[in-house]
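R.M. (postdoc): so does anyone remember the format we settled on? I'll just put the structure tokens first.
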């Protein structure tokens, strides 16, 4: 998607991820159908390390994606 700047991104969506793969999958598929989603930055914030959820997020190709990983010790 190129550089991240005010002209390339018109909307930022922040998603708090929980350990619910099915709900996240449904949300991602819904976002895929949104008009103008290619001009959106979707930020996923989560504190779990799930290979299935990680793969789901890593396979998003229809918009810019950023991840915030917050692990509690």
């Amino acid at each position: 998607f190129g550089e991240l700047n005010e002209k390339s991104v018109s909307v930022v969506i922040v998603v708090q991820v929980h350990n619910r793969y099915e709900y996240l999958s449904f949300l991602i598929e819904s976002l895929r159908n949104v008009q103008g989603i290619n001009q959106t930055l979707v930020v996923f914030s989560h504190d779990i390390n799930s290979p299935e959820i990680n793969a789901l997020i890593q396979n998003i190709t229809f918009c810019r994606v950023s991840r915030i990983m917050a692990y509690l010790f």
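R.M.: ...and that's the designed sequence above, right after the tokens. Also worth knowing: Residues 21-32 form the longest helix (12 residues). The chain has a mean pLDDT of 89.
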